[in-house]
Amino acid sequence: MKRGLSWFNVTSIVLGFAFLYIPILLLVIYSFNDSRLVTVWGGFSTRWYSALMQNEQLLDAAWVSLRVAFFAALVATVLGTMAALALVRYGRFRGRLLFSGMIYAPLVMPEVITGLSLLLLFVAINFDRGFYTVLLAHITFGMCFVAVVVQSRLVTFDTALEEAAQDLGCPPLKTFFLITLPLILPGVLAGFMLAFTLSMDDLVIASFTTGPGATTLPMRIYSQVRLGVTPEINAVSTILISVVTVVVLIASILTKRANSAREAEERLAMHG
Fold first, then answer.
1. Considering just the CA atoms, what is the radius of gyration of the chain in Å?
2. Quick check: 66 and 134 in contact, CB under 8 A?
3. CATH assignment of 55-271, given 1.10.3720.10, 3.40.640.10, 3.20.20.140, 3.55.40.20?
4. Residues 6 or more apart whose Cβ sits within 8 Å of residue 203
5. What tens digit of pLDDT does each residue of 171-195 get?
6. Does pTM surpass 0.85?
7. What are phi and psi of 67, to 5 degrees?
8. Which band of pLDDT confidence, cut at 50, 70 and 90, is reported for residue 1?
9. 8 A C-beta contact, residue 73 and residue 196
């Protein structure tokens, strides 16, 4: 029975990964298709990547998405880490229930509601929609994901290391940057990576909060796909997949190094 269950699990995993990644693989393969028809293979060619370099609309949209994703992830990581510290370290303070509810609400709220509410806010305060409104919107929901990731890391954090540093005369702020931050760095990097990828992927919220000159890549792709998929779409999607893959690899390497450094410090502390 165990053997049958094991084969069932393996088959389920293989089918699941095939369902997820075979379409992506086909997209990458057909981005090198010489034919103008995306479903007919006409030979290997990089002509559509050359054509993409001449498509200013897609390039501008990709540049907007990269800038929004990077700065939104950066600010969201800082704010989300601070929010996680407040929830974990300050116990039951006045307004904690409301604060935690505001952190978790965007995680379960439909993106349409989030986008519409932000649109109404920007209209009410007469804030012209454009790059900065998209950036603020992505910071808003990205911060919540970062807070949850970092909070899970802080829950298992050994505060004895911080107490030992402060007993030796290290100020609280210096203790955070020298002790706490390096130890929770894998969670912080994971939160940054999550916020970055969510920003690059967002279509609904950006559609509500964008304005002239701030069309993101998902919006541009969606508007062109409605008229028919072109090989240039495959090419830009392949580049986008490559960028996200590189970000994931860099974050994984940094996380592994941070974990190795933490394990080394823990061994030194045990022997000391």
1. 23
2. no
3. 1.10.3720.10
4. 216, 218, 219, 222
5. 888 888 888 888 888 889 889 988 9
6. no
7. -65, -45
8. very low
9. yes
